[in-house]
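debug: dumping io for the single-chain case to check the tokenizer round-trip. Nothing else runs in this session.
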Amino acid sequence: MKVAEYASFPNVPFPMRFLEQEESWNLFRPKAFDKKVCPMKFDNVAKEVVKNCKELPLVISTVAGTLSGKRTLDEWWKVAQTVSSLVNLDDYQRCSGVLVLSYNHLPPHLKSCFLYFGVFPKAREISVKKLLRLWTAEGLLELKGLEEPEKLGSSLLQDLIDKSLVVVGEQSLDGKIKAYRIHDLLHDLCLGEAESENLLYVLNPPVSKGHQTVFPKGSRWVSLHSTRGYFSSIRFDDLMRSKTRSLHISFSISIDRLVLRLNHFKFLRVLDLEKVSCYDLPREIVQLSSLRYFSMMVCKITKDLSISKLWNLQTLVFRQSYRGASPPIILSNGIWEMSQLRHLQGMYLCSPPQLSANEVKYRALENLQSVSGLSSRCCTKEIFEGIKKVKKVQIFDMVHEICSKLKCLDNLICLHELEELSIEGYIYSFIRLPRLEFFPPNLTKLTVNNTRLPWKEMTIISKLPKLKVLQLKKYAFDMKIVWELTEMGFPELRFLLLEESTLVYWRAADDYFPCLERVVIRNCRYLHEIPQGFADSMTLQQIELHGCRPSLVTFVDRIQKEQLESSGSDMRKVYAFDTIRGN
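debug: decoded output
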């Protein structure tokens, strides 16, 4: 308690307490039963279980998650007996016992997916897209036929949420989950179970002033969590190398300080060096023909490096320390021979080679689902034809690569299956939106960031027929005082983010935004008012204001009151955070 008082000074720390019996029941019931109502036949056993959880929220939610998949009274009583056997233990032992119980009741395929959380450092939010790509690369997903790994992986993650083994972290504007967390005790369980099965070896040594040499055990997954100490080398014998399928280093370090000898890892599937930096991509990487997932922080790739030898690769991620200021990472034509690729990040693509000299048809990456960090210079018809089945694209307009063709985005029409598009500039962008007829026909999400587009191009965006999510981030459009919408537009838009804009007034006719559900305004320091027509909206459910003026908060509160007076019900929620001082 003294530590909490010191850390929170001058505020008083929030006192933690056990739950009351009714609170315990209200936490248990919706997690244990689909319809959030306890059937009569389960009433006695359910209340017995809740009683033996001893008002501990983690125990209650975890046991409820375990029971949510049980359909017979016998199964419930077996779990109840196990919980009852833990009742005389101290709180820590009871929590640990319940977590082991929940883990033991998982099906085998879900156990492996759960244990994989142990490769990540404790108390970190875990990116959903990264986790799903790692599960896929490790072969943890039991795919059937043409089933998409992302869909199956999302379903398994939902199972873990329902069982209260993972917690939802960051969410996107439209409510999709972007990151997860797990409780520290559950992380300890992951480590303990995975290490006991010789699946995982985690290196997290204490602080040391001297050099350290580490000899990981013969585990399938090896993960370095430590941000402390100095590693002179990491050595594996031949037996260890033959068993290691996954190597993760989760802290910032130069590859010059690591002696990995990667070319000896013949069966490595995952090489996650996202924070490990090097100037030239190590040549021995291309000898890892079993590799499915590879990420690293690099400056350049030697032109003669035969990257096509990584023919099993599904995910390729290159990060740069100073994105935009550094020259792009250029990939050779060999990238077009890597038919298993599903995700690419942070590189410059060369035009694909022609399939034959007699026809104008280019090699294509048929399985590619997402490309991010794509230079605006790569927005050619040939390249877009080569990635024509992609669903997500993020374009980055770099400072030293001013796009001479202002209409390069007209080639987006080649991407018929594109659903999400993000366009980001650096310092100043010369890129311009395509005409309406050149936008991909199935686009549902558009993010524009630091592009300083002319406001007249908003008319194009307003007419996109399937657009549901629009994010206008930092200086998406050039400086302007009034944004006035006078014609019908945004026919399907549900979610809108307006961030770091110079706008003072935002006005719109009543028939604008007919489907809008949520508006988020962030750090718009000059904005005084939003459309008055929001008071009459039948669809708008939530308005969030972050770092805005008090006058805007007052204006939005007035809109909420008008809606309450006219309809008799308060269906709209208004939230204001970090309101700035002044008028």
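debug: round-trip ok. The first strand starts at residue 126 and ends at 127.
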